Amino acid sequence: MKVKRKLKSAFVQSFSGITLSAIAVIGLSPLALAVSGKVYLHSPEQNAQRQPQKLAQLDTGSPERSQLLQQANALFNQGDLTNAEANLRKFIKKFPDDAFGRFQLGNVLFRQKKSEEAISAYRDAIRLQPKYALAYNGIGMVYASQSRWEEAMTEYKKALEINPNYGEALTNFALVLWQTNKKDEALTSLEKALNIFKAQNRSEKVNQVEQILKEIKTANDPSVS
């Protein structure tokens, strides 16, 4: 099982040392995909970072809300996670029923390796918005970063029950399946994610998933040292 242990180690390291892509203001959940030590970063919503200011104002009805979210995004992009967190906590005080703000706080806390706090923030987002697939995916990522594979799988399943065509959750789910020796199921989930990304014309994601598929299909037999 030496090869499997190596892949598991690479998977864990990718989460613990991940540099997250920018938190776009519509609520991007960062995603790390690692196979054989390779790390892939991408965001769960197509074209999200191309129109951050416009997207920040969707369904808000509040210029102050948009401004606070954009400030948090700017701080995060600058690597100032402490102030990004403080900004989001200020936001939550002003908008206590805003699920998105709590989701974003979860992202920032996860980036700071504050795992339990991140889970709590994601759970708060779900409490306010029960069908928050992105938040379930975020919780799954936290569990996966701790090698809590079964718990991660449960959260990814919840995300996919809400949105069966959530490509990032399908990919995350596949990697946990792979870690738990369910290779065929992992490949099926990846193939579905690949088809979804193709339909969405997300070429970068297509290339990433194709590379993961190739590596899993060609991985050495776990019994070989």
What would your notes on this structure say?
With 225 residues, the chain is mostly helical. It has a single domain (2-218), classed as Alpha Horseshoe (Serine Threonine Protein Phosphatase 5, Tetratricopeptide repeat), CATH 1.25.40.10. The protein is 66% helix and 4% strand. The chain has eleven helices and two strands, in the order αββαααααααααα. It has helices at residues 2-16, 52-56, 63-77, 81-94, 99-111, 115-128, 133-145, 149-162, 167-179, 183-199, 203-218; strands at residues 31-35, 38-42. A two-stranded antiparallel sheet has the order 1-2. Strand 1 (31-35) and strand 2 (38-42) form a beta hairpin. Helix 4 runs antiparallel to helix 5 and helix 7 (133-145) packs parallel to helix 9. The longest helix is centred in the C-terminal third of the chain and has 17 residues, at 183-199. 42% of the residues are buried. The model is unreliable at 1-59 (pLDDT under 50).
What are the key terms here?
225 residues, mainly alpha, elongated, two-stranded antiparallel ribbon
